[in-house]
Amino acid sequence: MAQAEKINLMSWNVNGIRAVYRKEALTPVFAEKPDVLCLQETKAMKEQLSEDLINIDGYHSYFVSAVRKGYSGVAIYSRKEPVKIENGLGIEKFDEEGRTIIAHFDKFSLFNIYYPNGKASKERLKYKLDFYDAFLEKAVGLKEAGKGIIICGDVNTAHTEIDLARPKENEKVSGFLPEERAWIDKFIEAGFVDTFRLFNQEEGNYTWWDMKSRARDRNIGWRIDYFFVSDNLEKSVKKATIRQDFFGSDHCPIGLEVAL
Predict the structure, then answer these.
(1) Who is most buried in 25, 46, 164, 171, counting CB within 10 A?
(2) pTM (2 d.p.)
(3) Where in the sequence numbering do the catalytic residues fall?
């Protein structure tokens, strides 16, 4: 029987890939040599990036950007070349915002997603919930076809009360609304696992902090960045981490180690 291969993945909402590059904040992340690094909210088209960001030694790179400049966007850096890359969910109103890239490997399919924020208006909240449902349909379809699935990104919703510092004050705020949290319940019930909670059930573990109020200094944050796996990969999960030791964005990176 072949020995399982250890795969280390990292995910980070960088709030501008060019900004974190100028701050040299990506250097310590790549120094860890993740097998796959997923970035969200890159806010750049590939043609706006320097060669140093596109051609990183030892990595294949893939970028999806929004039609609108300086908005949204996702990227994947992978040591191993994927078998196939899908840009988007195949639905124009979502794909024009550059929120999804799917990398298919021999042993799993990886979704890297920057999920919409619903705070701006009722229309944006509906867009967010519609995006959630379209993504879920795609993920369930792959799972039912027997694929092992890893999903990472900024989900823009804290699931339970321990996933944000001030739950009571935010019950009517998008990101912690009952219908958003209920969707995560539905997603988990469909056969997906919140990997961090396999190892840690404590409060105080956040991935995003408001920069204007310097909330990170006081750890007044939200856990809105996740690694999920399909339940057929649950036993392969060896470690899931929140990397508060990295700086450069209003989010911190998260990590996942699997043996496949």
Answers:
(1) 164
(2) 0.97
(3) 154
